[in-house]
Amino acid sequence: MIEAVGTRARGLRQQRPEAVAATSALRLLDWWLVGAVAGLLAFGLWAIHGITAHDVTGNPDYFFMRQGIYAAVGVAGAIALLFVDPQVYRRHMRAIYIGTTGVMLLVLVAGTVSRHSKRWLDIGFFRFQPSEFGKLLLVLFLAAFLADRAKRLGEARTVAEAIGLACVPILLVFVQPDIGTAMVYIAALAAVLFVAGVRWVHLAALGIGTLVVILAVLWLLPASGVHVLKDYQAKRLTGFTHPDSDPAGATYNVAQARNAVGAGGVKGRGVAGATQTKLNFLPEHATDFAFASLAEQRGFVGCAILLLLYLLVVWRGLRVITGASDLYGVVVAGGLVVAFLFQVFVNVGMTMGVAPVTGIPLPFVTVGGSSMVANLVLIGVLQSIHARGELGRGGPS
Question: DSSP secondary-structure letter at 217?
Fold first, then answer.
């Protein structure tokens, strides 16, 4: 599948997708993807209802209702984007990039501070996290930048320019600080470069450079007295390598998450019997560690259902890549699918102590409006690319 994606990206002609008429839009949808996302929404809302049942005294439906509203907004956004030709994003790539970096700067200047981070913009009736939407916007820009330089993708200068441009929003998110989202941006950057067809040596250089930066930030610079991260941040990122070293301190969250996952067993302990979640022994049980709460309440069976739904979304996302009508669509779909998969992998991994604790939300499960809407909008863009690929192959009209 990966080789097929790379070959298609390298050999695909620059075709202009046809417009999608409202009368044919439903017939052009990937209904497997629709079903998988609908299943995730239903399962996620059901999981949230149980995970947050004891969080607001006297109102067990509080977070469930809020997430339902966010889901409705996200679905409306996804439907709207189905009718937007992806070439619109390509033509306005500069505006997308300037707008993305501008909003990230605005967050640093006028953002709302919460838990030592400045990640949110408060517009009165709604507080949202721009970096969540930045995942999509960065991919749209980078795909356009690379597609417009398709004949120069083998040149180191083109790759360096793409990486340099991506580093601006990555650094702006990193200093909020939002290390987890910055990691998602880096994964998306690597994905669009690979799918676009850049040379392996350039991908290797990006990987080595990223590794050097990680080593410098976590160990080399602190050893020389320069601390890029605060002490608690560094411990959270490295704690998964020795989860039992400080169970009452730096690795407390990981230890409690592992206890919750193990306590769930095969069928789970139910909402009433999940003491790790119910009694708040598990920190951030509705956000960072929602998967651990789900594992405690619904057990291996519940977690398996969720992961299978994620797998179905990723599979259909790969189908969108191979069926896209032009190089831009291929690269956008590739970047979005990898960004989605990376979030799932890291979030699930950190609850079991095999990935760093970064605060990356679990798509469609973690409580939060920005994450819910952004992921549904992402699905809308994928469906738009799929629809135009179907028309290009003589599909319904």
Answer: I
Q: What average pLDDT score do residues 173-194 get?
A: 92
CA atoms within 13 A on the CB side of 271: 11
Res 235: pLDDT: 72
The stretch 69-75 carries a mean pLDDT of 96
What b-and-e string marks burial along 82-101, b requiring 16 or more CB atoms within 10 Å of the CB?
A: beebbeebbeebeebbeebb
pLDDT band at 15 (very low <50, low <70, confident <90, very high): very low
Tell me the residue type at 237: L
> In terms of C-beta density within 10 A (0-12 exposed, 13-18 middle, 19 or more buried), how is residue 69 classed?
exposed
Name the pTM for this structure: 0.90
> How much is the mean pLDDT over the chain?
87
117 three-class SS: strand
- What span, in angstroms and rounded, lies between the C-alpha atoms of 45 and 43? 6
Rounded Cα distance between 372 and 388, Å, is: 25
How many CB atoms neighbour CB 121 within 10 A?
A: 17
The model's confidence at residue 248, banded by pLDDT at 50, 70 and 90, is low
Provide the edge-to-edge strand list for the sheet that holds 112-114: 112-114, 117-122, 127-128
Quote the CA–CA distance of 36 and 13 in Å, as a whole number.
31
Distance between CA atoms of 115 and 132, rounded to whole angstroms? 18
Residues 290, 366: Cα–Cα separation, whole Å: 6
